[in-house]
Amino acid sequence: MTQWTYICKIEDIPALGARRVARAQGLEVAVFRTADDEVFALLDRCPHKGGPLSQGMVFGKSVACPLHNWTIGLCNGQAAAPDEGCTPHFQVKLEDGAVYLDADELARHALTETRPLAGPALRCA
To answer: Following DSSP, what letter does each residue of 51-66 receive, concatenated?
Structure first.
């Protein structure tokens, strides 16, 4: 039986926006709200260069990565063609205006994903 963790009220997530959920281990989870008040959750990391999807633009059932404008499906984390890649998604439950995530997934899912480190800065002469 799934144990659900309360995250917030749906009104706490901006329409066509996201809210980040910190975890004890691993990267944050981004919880997205569509114009139709559907709620989805993805690891807050684009499969391309690790951009924070929570800062992207939500349109339809997709989010555009703020770094390179890749389109990522909110239902499954899959990049839209011609791009390739996938970011982990998480189960969400919306009940009486409250948003819940699967407690086991929060604790165990996608813990090894990391953000890329920035390269060294160039020195000016």
So the answer is: --GGGSEEETTEEE-T
Give the C-alpha separation, 125 to 113, whole Å: 37
The residues spanned by each domain of the chain are: 4-108
- Locus of tokens 């813990």: 111
Model confidence band, residue 117 (pLDDT cutoffs 50, 70, 90): confident
pLDDT confidence band for 121 (50 / 70 / 90): low
Cis peptide bond upstream of 82, omega within 30:
yes
Beta bridge partners of 57: 64
Model pLDDT for residues 18-72, shown as the tens digit of each residue: 999 999 999 999 999 999 999 999 999 999 999 999 999 999 999 999 999 999 9
Measured distance CA(68)–CA(110) in Å, rounded: 23
Cα–Cα distance measured from residue 33 to residue 55, given in angstroms and rounded to the nearest whole number: 13
CATH 2.102.10.10, applies to 4-108 = yes
